[in-house]
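This is your field. Have a critical look at the following sequence-structure pair:

***
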Amino acid sequence: MYATGKLCELDCVGCLTELRGWMTRLYDITPPIDASLKVWPGDTPPHREVLLDMRRGDNITLSTLRATVHLGAHADAPSHYGAEALSIDRCSLEPYLGPCQVVRLAVARGKRVQPADVGAIHAPRVLICTGTFPDPRVFNEDFAALSVELIDVLHERKVRLVGIDTPSVDLFDSKDLPAHRRILKYDMSILEGLVLDGVPAGVYDMIALPLKLVGFDASPVRAILREER
């Protein structure tokens, strides 16, 4: 125990300095959800219906959300692309929590990312920043996607989850969904609609938990990256 308050104060300053050294930076890689957020053409856009409002004199504020489950940053369930596959409530949470590598690359719009584009992989979860869907409020159909060859390589490197900063791991006009189907074959998990433009390449801790929506084919997530220390 220190004999004087001054010594105690100095020690506390030292403690705060040490604590700041352990503080980590968080990156929120989730787009804001409001009426301006674009969804896949033909899908249900987000709409808020206010049932009660304290500003109108009600005792509480209460609202209803109507929207697609493929909303903003979201986790696809295997049932989205496999007829007898698991719905999102039956999926393990393990893939959506843990070490994650952000990969930034230059890829042309409308093209599929190839293994040579990605480089070395150091984590069991990989988020790919293509830069080809720069504004969630504007739906451009020429975004990039993933190749089956890349999915094969990621599987060989023990990757459990792959995410992308576009609305889909397949191209907009794809009907047979080869990337989705290859991911289903390997029992990998998918995150789509991420916002990665401000995130440096590197390894992070990821938290992107889907809701326990029984029977649903996807769920929105609040996707967060935390710098490793």
